[in-house]
Amino acid sequence: MKKKNQNEADNVVYEQTEDAPKKKKAKAKKGGGVPRNIGKGVGIAAAVLVAAVLAFDSYYTLSEEEMAVVTTFGKPSVQEASGLHFKVPLIQQVTKISKAITGMQIGYTTDPERAEGASMENPVSIEKESLMITNDFNLINVDFYVEYMVTDPIQAVRHRNVYESIIKNLAQSYIRDTVGLYNVDDVITTGKTQIQERVKEQLTNRLVEENIGYGIYNVSIQDSGMPREDVSNAFKAVEDAKQGMETAINTAKKYQSENIPKANAEADKLLQEAEAYKQQRINEANGQVARFEDTYAEYVKYPLITKKRMFYETMEELLPDLKVIIDNGSGTQTMLPLEPFANVTEGTSGNQTPQAAAPAGQ
Question: For the domain 102-227, what is the CATH superfamily, name and number?
Fold first, then answer.
């Protein structure tokens, strides 16, 4: 069966069969699916995305303050060298750990999340941690600062969710046990060093037994004082007095160390001088004895000659420095020894007048 369509503009008649609309509908249904090019693009994009994810997961970097535990099929290994490292994506897992020393505050805090108004400039005391009892049954507030670091990275990773609570609970236990062995005066003044060392030793040994991958670096007392202000002031006065005593002792020791060597040096010098003088006198005495013995031996042989020789030798020693003035009472004076004329003239003008006046005064 055929239909006729007439074009009103040019009165052209077209013939069209009834099967033509059915063919058009069939073509329309066939073209309604997803084009093959679009499906391929989505697959490529997904592959690129997966490759990018795997590429970013195939390496990691470590700083100087970090180390890593690399787990491969459940088997851990440690990587401590800094820099760029590669790993197998999806198979190897990397956990980074800090090498730095970490601190823990016990008895006080500077963290505003633990206490309202806390800061580095304004630490806030936590009395439930700091209040303790001493050996002489006194209450005292003691603040500690515990420093720890990683000693076994693999164990540290295994205990990364519980190590802080373990260290804190053990530290508080050993701190209270140790403070309870000392009197309150020692805790505030002279016993701090012993307490710190004892707590550090006990806590270190216990962490080795627990094997959580962390060790103690240092334990220090930040502050200690009495809960009541009046008692605290009294103990501070005692501590100030002890510090004053130590200052005076140190000053005395300094003076002692400065002056004792000087005094010892002067004493050594005097001893050396006395020894030298002693030796000199001994040598002189030995010389005189030897000379006397020689003279005595000569005297035994020739007594008269020896006497005269000794007399002359003695006069030779005495007369050069001796001036003898003889006054016979008549005004005539004689001076011995006789000197040259010039010296005699000077002597008579300068020396004879006062010496001659002596008899007149008598």
Answer: Band 7 domain (3.30.479.30)
110: burial class by Cβ within 10 Å (0-12, 13-18, 19+)? middle
Measured distance CA(161)–CA(91) in Å, rounded: 23
Q: Which is more confidently placed, 19 or 308?
A: 308
Which residues lie across from 79 on neighbouring strands? Answer: 68
Distance CA(260)–CA(16), nearest Å, equals 138
* Cα distances (angstroms) measured from residue 308 to each of 70, 302, 304, 320: 120, 10, 6, 18
Query: Is the pLDDT assigned to residue 174 strictly greater than 90?
Result: yes
Give the phi and the psi of residue 270 in degrees, each rounded to 5: -65, -40
Phi, psi at residue 214, to the nearest 5°? -125, 150
- The radius of gyration computed from the CA coordinates of the chain, to the nearest angstrom, equals 58
- Lowest-confidence range among 19-23, 50-54, 72-76, 165-169? 19-23
CA distance 151 to 220: 20
Mean pLDDT over 140-164 rounds to 93
How far is Cα 68 from Cα 86, in angstroms, rounded to an integer?
A: 12
Sign of the Cα pseudo-torsion (25, 27, 30, 35, in order) = negative
DSSP letters of 209-270? HHT-SEEEEEEEEEEEE-SSHHHHHHHHHHHHHHHHHHHHHHHHHHHHHHHHHHHHHHHHHH
Measured CA to CA, the distance from residue 304 to residue 355 in angstroms comes to 38
- Which is it for the CA torsion 83, 86, 89, 94, positive or negative? negative
Backbone angles phi, psi at 69, to 5 degrees: -110, 115
Are 153 and 214 a contacting pair, CB within 8 Å?
A: no
Range with the poorest average pLDDT among 17-21, 167-171, 200-204, 258-262: 17-21
Share of the chain above pLDDT 90, in %: 35
Mean pLDDT of the chain: 79
Domain ranges of the chain: 54-98, 102-227, 230-301, 305-349
Cross-sheet strand order for the sheet of 92-98: 75-79, 66-72, 92-98
pTM, two decimal places: 0.51
Q: Go through the chain and tell me how many residues it has.
A: 362
